[in-house]
Amino acid sequence: MARSPLMNVMIQSVRKVGRALARDFGEIENLQVSMKGPGNFVSAADRKAEKTLFEELSRVRPGWGFIMEERGVVEGSDAQHRWIVDPLDGTTNFLHGIPQFAISLALERAGVIIATVIYNPVTDELFSAERGSGAFLNDRRLRVAARRELADAVIGTGHPHIGSDGHVDHVRRLRHVLAGTAGIRSTGAAALDLAYVAAGRFDGFWQAGLEIWDVAGGLLLVREAGGYVSDFEGKDKMIERRQIVAGNEEIQRKLVGLIEAAG
């Protein structure tokens, strides 16, 4: 499959980081781990992955800015372009030896996400999309699932830990969605969950409390696979409100309705 120069740069960068993460994953017991907050751990592998991505992308596209999970915002001389980086989505899975984690890299141009790569180095699954060019898993074109009824749908979500903001609201919504669907799955890696919606593995996904690096890449993947994405009110304010609902047109609309009914 022919890829653009931009996509080649992104893929080469995440594969380089992926090789290092896969090695660290095999030596999980030797990682130096620090605590950033309840339920949110940062490993030496996480920091090393972010540093590598920063250095690689700065070298090939000097002057472009960054927003990164650990470093935060890094202003560039080119105000039109900004990399959005989650070097290790699913850190808790990684630290527990669960092979469900990914590198998520997206590019924003003038405030619009135009390209993304989400890569799980353990499974060697690389999800990619460029605006207007479709979504892919490795070299296979992706489409969202075709199911139209929530009763037939498997829905992904992420669970906030007890005591965190939004925990009570999430449990209330969870009851509504669980009662109206074929099942709920929680993998612990939001970027991969959205990639799974794009691939038709999940029929839909919802979650609150997500940061821009958690969802930027997945938003484009779902849309380029023919899916729909909104906030909990059905509007296009996913980043501002830190909430997302995704699926095909029917499932996404009905999932929004379930969430609204939960209050």
Estimate the strand proportion: 25-35%
CATH superfamily (homologous) name of the largest domain: Fructose-1,6-Bisphosphatase, subunit A, domain 1
Shape: globular
Report, as a whole number of angstroms, the end-to-end distance.
46 Å
Low-confidence stretches: none
- Summarize the biggest pleated sheet: 8 strands, mixed
- CATH domain topology of the largest domain: Fructose-1,6-Bisphosphatase, Chain A, domain 1
Strand ordering within the main sheet: 4-3-5-6-7-8-9-10
- Number of helical stretches of at least 4 residues: 8
GO molecular function, one term: inositol monophosphate 1-phosphatase activity
Catalytic activity: a myo-inositol phosphate + H2O = myo-inositol + phosphate
InterPro entries: IMPase, Inositol_monoP_metal-BS, Inositol_monophosphatase-like, Inositol_monophosphatase_CS, Inositol_monophosphatase_SuhB
Cofactor: Mg(2+)
